[in-house]
Amino acid sequence: MSIKDDTKILQQFLKELPHDIAVKHIKTVKAIGKAENIQSTRVFRSTKQLSAVNAQLHNTLKQQSDSLGEEVIQDVKDEINTLIQTLTPKYQLGDKLQLVDGIEKIIFAEDNTHTTEKTTFQVEDGIVYLIDIWATWCGPCQNPMEHNQKMLEKNPDWQNKAKIIAISVDDDSDSVKERVNSKKWKSIEHYRFEKGWDDQNNLIKYLQLRGIPFVLLINKWGKIVYMGHPSKANLEEKINKEIAAEKEEEQTQTQEKAAENNNQQELLTKEQFKQVKDKLKELQPVLQDAKFEGIVQLQLQKENQWSHDGSKEVKKRSKLELSYDVNVAEEEKITAFLQNHWNQIPEELRVVKESKIRDPQRQVKEIKAKFQSHFESKGATISFPTTQITNLSLSQDKQEITGGDRHRFDIKCENLTLDTYKTGLDELREFTEQFEDEENEEIRETIEMIIEGLKSNVTLGEGKQFVTIDNYKKWGSDEFTSIEHTQGQVLVLDYWAKWCGPCVREIANNTDLIKQNQDKWGKAVRFVSLSLVLAEEAKEFMDTHQESQQYIEFYFPKEQRQKDATLYGVQYIPHYIIVDKFGTIRKVASVGNMKEVVNELINEEAPKKSLEQAQPVLLGQDAITQIKAILQSDETTDFIKSIDQQKVIAFDLKINSKQVGGDQYQFETVQLSYFVRDTQVEGLQTLLAKLYQIIPETSWKIDKTISKTITIKYPGAVCAVCQKDISKDAQQYYCHFKDEHVCTECAEFDDVTKTGMERYKYQDALIFINGPLSDLSVLTNIDDHKIGKNLKLKEGDKAEQSHPMMCNGCGGGAKGPRYISLNARPGRYRGGGYIDYCCKCFAELKNKDSERAKEIVAKDVADGMTIDSLFTRVLFNYGGYQAF
Ligand SMILES: [Zn+2]
Ligand SMILES: [Zn+2]
C-alpha cells in the first residue's frame, strides 16, 4: 500500500474538519540496539482537538471511518482511527458552553425540605456564570463553595448580572441538601449530575474532567473564559471584569503556537535529510553488533502537514536522533559508539535526545546522602555503617564449602522521633516516588531498606529503646506535651478508648492494683493511659472515673488516629507498652499478669542483656582468609564427605564483620548452625577447634542440633512376650525402650480400632527388622527421633488412626498403622516428610523377593530406601496416650 492511498482517504476527512485544524502525517524510522531491522511507522495526528461545540462532527467522522470498505487495508484504518482519537472533542477557552443535560435541580424550601427536578442547563446571554463542579465528600471543594457564598453575599449588585451555579457529582441529593443547609450556601443555585460522576455526561466528558473542585467562568456571550481549579484565579475580580466587559475578548491559544514554532526549527533540507537516512541505515548493523543491554535507539522523523484545503507542507525533517538509557556497565560501549560513529556525523545532522547511564551504586550513595541531609535538617542523625558478611555454607551436594563476601549497609540513627520519622518521609515522598518504575528495582530496594531501618528505630518493639511520644495533653490541661521515660522508673503505657469495654475494665483493674501496691510501688512505676479518642469526647467518662485519675495519668491526642498509634502497631485495644527502668521496651500489646510484670521490672538491678549477644572480637582481615582456608582444605572436605555418607550433615557459617579502621575488623557475629549425628560430633569438634584458634569460642553464636542415634541388636534370642526362641527367625521386632525382641506373631495385630488393646504389650515403638539382611549397616545409625514415642492407649480410650499420611508405595492417603522407614531420608525431618507405607504396602515389602516389593523400593532409592530397610510402626495419632 503506497502513501497515496492513505493520503487519499485523509483528503476526504480533511474536507470535513474546521479550517483551523490541520493534520500532521508523521513518519518515524527507527533503528533499535537489539532489533534486527529498521522499523518504520506512520501516524496521523490533528494539530489540535476538536472543540466541544463540534462534538457532533466527531461522531460523523467516526461513522465514516467505521464504514471504510475492505479495499482499505488495516494499517490505513488504524492510522485514520488514531487521527480521530487525536480529534476527540474538548472544551477550550473561547468555546460556547453547550446545553448541559443529565442534571437535576435541587430546590430548597423555606422549611429546610428540598425537592429535585430533572432538568437541563443552558446559559443565558448577558449573564456571567461561574459553574463550580464539586462534591460533599471532596475536602478541597468545601472552601471554594464557602467562598462562592461569601462572594454572592458581598456583591448584591451581581443580581441578574452574575450567577453562581454549583453542580455536585455526589451520588445522592440528600447529602448535598444537608451540607447546603448546614453551611447556609443558599445564594448559590444547586444542581447535581443525575448519575453522579458519569464520564458519559456531555459536560464531564467534554471537559475531560479528572478532578474536582473545577470551575468554569462563562462570559456574557456564553463563552468559556476560565477553566480550572477555583483557587488558581481571583474569581471575584474576574467576574467583576466580565460583568463590566462591553465587547468580547479574543481568546488565543498561545501555547499551541509556541509548540509549533519549536518544531519549525527541525527542518533539514532535502539533501541533508537524505544523508541522515543513509546514516541511519549505515549505523543499524553497528548498533546490532554492539548488543547493548538496555535501550539504545536511533530515529528520524518526517512530518507533513495537510491543511483543510488539501495543501501539503513539510513541517519537519529531523536530525538523526539518538536516545539511550543503559546501565553503567554499558558505559564503555556507549562511549566507543559515540566516538567511533556518532561523533563522525556532521554536528548539524545529529542530536542526542536522551542520554541516561544508570549507575545504581552512585544513585544509592546519592539516596543515602539525601536521607542523611534531610533528616539532619530535622535534628536526627543517620549513618550507614557497612558490614562485611562472609557466608560459608556446605554446598547442596555436600562436596565443598562455598560462599563469599557480601557487603550490607545498616541503618543507625539517633534522635529520631516519631514525628521526625513521619514528616521526614512525607516530605521525601516526591523524591522517592521517582524511582518507582521497573528499571529502578535496586534503588527501590535501597529506599525500602532505609525506610524499614528508620522505622525499626522508632517502632516500639520489644527490646527497642523507647522513643518519646509527642502531641498528647494531660486531662484538664490545654497544653500538648510529650510522654517521656524517666530513668529508674517503670513506665506502663496503655492505649485505650472510652467505647472499648475491655479497655474500661482494665483501667478499673489497674486502678485497684495500683491502690493495693501503692506503698511498694510508689514512684517506681508510672501508669499512663493514652486515649485514641479526643478529650472533647471523653468528658463524661472522665467525670465518672474520678478515682482512676488519682492513680493513672490520662492523656489525650491532638488528632484522632494519631500516627504514634499506627507506628506502634496498635491494632487491638487495650494495647500496652511497658518500658523498663533503663528505657528499653519489654512488653508490647497484651500483658498477662500486670502485678507480676511490674514487680519483676521494678526489682531489676541492671539492664537485661540480650542472650543472643556474643562477645565481639577485634581481628585482622586475614582471620577470614584463614577460616576459609581451613574450611576449603582437602582435610575438611574429606571429613565432610565421610560423614555425609549418611546425608545428615548441615553446616552453615556466617561471619558479619565491620571494618573499624585499617585492617582491623570487628566481628559482630560469628554465627554457626550445624546439624550432625552424635557419632559425628567428635570429628566436627576437631574441625571447630581449629576455627576457635582464630576466633575464640566465646565470640561464636552457635545453633547446633545433634541427633541421637541408636544401633539395633539382631537377631534377638527369645520373644519377650511368648518366650519362644527367635534366634533363627529372619524377621522379628525390636523394642528399643525395653531392649527386647518380639516374635512376629506377638508383635503383629491389626484390630487397632477395636477395644481390647490392653492385651498388647507393645502398641507403639516396635521396630520391624526385615531379615534376612544382606546389608547390616541398616541396623546402625538409626535416628532416635524417628522411632515411635513408646506410648500406650489409656484405659477405656478408643484407638484412632487420624494422623494424615500418604503412602509412598501406593500413594493412598491411608488410615491404619503407619510404617516409617528408618533408613531412607535420614537426618533431620525434611520438607518431604518421611518415607512411610500403609499396612498393605508394608505387607508387600515384607515379602522381599516379590516384584511388587522391589517396585515399591525402587521408587525411593534416591532417598536411601533399600529392600533391607527397617520400619518403625506408628499406630495412633498423638494425644490421649500415656507413656509406657
Ligand atoms: Zn512371641
Ligand atoms: Zn500403600
TrEMBL record:
Pfam families from the UniProt entry: Thioredoxin_8 (PF13905)
PROSITE patterns for this protein: THIOREDOXIN_2 (PS51352)
Alphabetized InterPro entries for the sequence: Thioredoxin-like_fold, Thioredoxin_domain, Thioredoxin_ResA/DsbE_sf
Region (Disordered): 246-266
Domain of life: Eukaryota
Transmembrane segments: none
Residue ranges constituting the Thioredoxin domain according to the UniProt record: 82-244, 422-607
PANTHER family given in the database record: CHROMOSOME UNDETERMINED SCAFFOLD_47, WHOLE GENOME SHOTGUN SEQUENCE (PTHR42852:SF18), THIOL:DISULFIDE INTERCHANGE PROTEIN DSBE (PTHR42852)
Name of the protein this chain belongs to: Thioredoxin domain-containing protein
Source species: Paramecium octaurelia
